[in-house]
Write a structure and sequence with these properties.
Length: 332
């Protein structure tokens, strides 16, 4: 099987090449994003392997199908950038990696909370400048604070357990509550209740019509003053303009984002010598109480190994026509 990769970084190649020793597929790597501009490079490929910011709309899928591509392998959990209806219509099979080390993302969400709270990023720079003053570094105890988790799937569950480990009261909201978490003492409440009671809110639900701009002017208005909002899920869960207004009015006390609505033009690239035209991200980065990381929550060696292994296994199953319809990896 020949697989053409898009948005490839050196670390993707390293882990896929390693795992491919067990599969012997022909792997063809391209650094560029997948979109209408790059379809000419597809040459006798059976499969395309894409990532979070690739464009797999109906037009792109149709061209891929015309070029003989049969399988689309998303090497990520989210699939909001794939037109699944179009894929189905075209007879393309689509898979994703449903759960690759959910702890990687959950631990990063907690790292963002601890950094924003205890300001370790500022302390690190200060001490290097021989400034040993503590002024402005005061944080708060997580112990007995209320942490709200929106979306308690694989990642939300792992995060809720970590938050519980800090002695926080953990509230959860999900359209499908988990009995396992309830048994651990995690309390499911309505979204309104979670917004009103939480000192920290961490987003772990997928991006879909129902969750688009879940965090907006109205929902921010329901939150506690000085709330901390953490988003390691998908950028468009937050209406960025409203959160900027919330930060300016000090209603939002802290914001940690690993994902951003317009991230496809920025993230995963070195733009240090470029003039950035996106004024919104520049405004966000100018707040002292905002922490932005560039979609790195998944980025652990354990997760990369699992991503490569799960993706090539799914493609192998597709190729052998193996029935794995019940697997959460199969989208179409
Ligand atoms: P999952 O499918 O296991 O869990 C998602 C949960 O959200 C489910 O329990 C589902 O019932 C719930 N949900 C669905 N609609 C909801 C709604 N309207 N309100 C509240 N909850 C709702 O997914 P996961 O593996 O936990 O991943 C969650 C998200 O994290 C993914 O969709 C992806 O966008 C994001 N993600 C980010 C990174 C990163 O590196 N930053 C890495 C992996 C995944």
């Amino acid at each position: 099987m020949k697989v053409t990769f898009f948005s490839t970084k050196p670390y993707d190649k390293e882990f896929f090449d390693k795992v491919n020793k067990d599969f012997n597929f022909e792997l063809d790597y391209f650094e560029t994003h997948l979109g209408p501009h790059i379809l000419n490079v597809i040459d006798h490929s059976d499969a395309v392997c894409a990532f979070v910011n690739d464009n797999l709309n109906a037009e792109v899928l149709q061209s891929l199908s015309q070029k003989g591509v049969q399988y689309i392998a998303m090497r990520c959990a989210g699939f909001n950038n794939v037109d699944l209806e179009a894929a189905k219509r075209l007879g393309l099979r689509v898979c994703r990696v449903p759960a690759y080390s959910p702890e990687a993302v959950a631990e990063h969400a907690m790292a963002m909370i601890l950094t924003l709270n205890r300001k370790t990023h500022k302390a690190y720079n200060r001490v290097r400048e021989q400034n040993f003053s503590l002024n402005g570094l005061m944080g708060f105890n997580l112990y007995q604070k209320t942490i709200g988790v929106i979306g308690t799937g694989n990642i939300g569950k792992a995060f809720a357990k970590i938050a519980q480990g800090f002695g926080a009261r953990v509230l959860a909201y999900d359209v499908a509550p988990s009995e396992g978490l309830q048994a651990l003492g995690i309390e499911y409440v309505s979204l309104d209740n979670l917004l009103a009671q939480s000192d920290i809110i961490s987003l772990h639900c997928p991006l879909m019509e129902a969750t688009h701009h879940l965090i907006n002017k109205e929902s921010i208005g329901q939150m506690k003053e000085n709330v901390m909002i953490i988003n390691t899920s998908r950028g468009a869960l937050i209406d960025t303009k409203s959160v900027i207004d919330g930060l300016k009015s000090k209603h939002v006390g802290y914001l940690g984002i690993d994902v951003y609505e317009q991230e496809e033009k920025l993230f995963f690239r070195d733009l240090s010598h470029t003039i950035i035209e996106d004024d919104t991200i520049q405004r966000l980065m100018s707040f002292p109480n905002v922490l932005v990381t560039a979609h790195q929550a998944f980025f652990t060696s354990e997760a990369l190994l699992q991503i490569a292994s799960s993706t090539l296994t799914s493609l192998s199953n597709f190729g052998q026509n193996k029935d794995f319809e019940n697997s959460q990896a199969v989208l179409v």
